[in-house]
What does this fold into?
Amino acid sequence: MQVILTQDIKNLGKKGEMVNVSDGYARNYLFPRKLATEVNAQALTELKNREAAKQHKIDTEIANARANAEKLEGKTVKITAKAGQSGKLFGSVTSKEIAEAIKEQIGIEIDRRKISVAEIKAYGTYPCEIKLYTGISATMYVAVGE
It folds into this structure.
């Protein structure tokens, strides 16, 4: 018998998958515990609609990531910081400050955890990689000055 799982079941499948199980297992275990529903026309269309919606969401996220990567690629963000006489900063420039500067200067909101940059402890221009989506990243520069 084919059923659609309503919850993850160990050694059987994940929520939303259509699997083959024996009739007794479905009637005596899965259906009474509301772990699965029987496959019928309505359940199949709901399953297809859920999968299509999930794929559409992934496609839009990828399109947005590519558009943001084009906007960020090669750009320079300026950050001001205080330093001593030797040009060495008091503290360092963090990825949080870089994310705030990107939002303010370019207008794109980036999560600070997606920014990878070497430790910035002096004035200068530093390369910075921003991972926007799996396989999609942009390289930009951070200029630190007074």
